[in-house]
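pinging the channel bc i need a second pair of eyes. not urgent but kinda urgent?? the chain im working w is below, pasted from the shared doc
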Amino acid sequence: MAAIYEHEISVAQADIDMQGHVNNLVYLRWMQDAAVAHSVAENWGKRRYDELGCGWVVRAHAIEYLSPAFAGEELVVRTWLSDYFTASVLRQYEICRVDDGKKLAKAETKWVLIDMIKRTPRRIPNEILAAFQLAPRGEASV
């Protein structure tokens, strides 16, 4: 189990907006894709959450765009959990260009675990907490 998960991205032409760089909404999609891939890598895919009758929803996103990305570039989304609460986790992200290591964005999301029938927050089971190693809040060190 690695605290920091790396998710590789190839910037597609469809990701580009009218300014000629990656649209800001695409970064959110990449963040969600990286979070899901990290969960799956730790053996927590949809089936396991369904067995427990729970799933994750976003309470809040915060993102800072530092530099643009362009079509054809190879990127890496680094993501990790930096804190646990009763029914939520704080997940952080760094999006970097592979060629030069330049950080393009940094972000965090507060994810809340919900009961899928009641649609209300629920305590995070110990078996989920045990699957993910915490890393310090702030920037990834890889």
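so The chain has a mean pLDDT of 95. and Helices lie at 24-41, 46-52, 126-129. — does that match what u expected or am i reading it wrong
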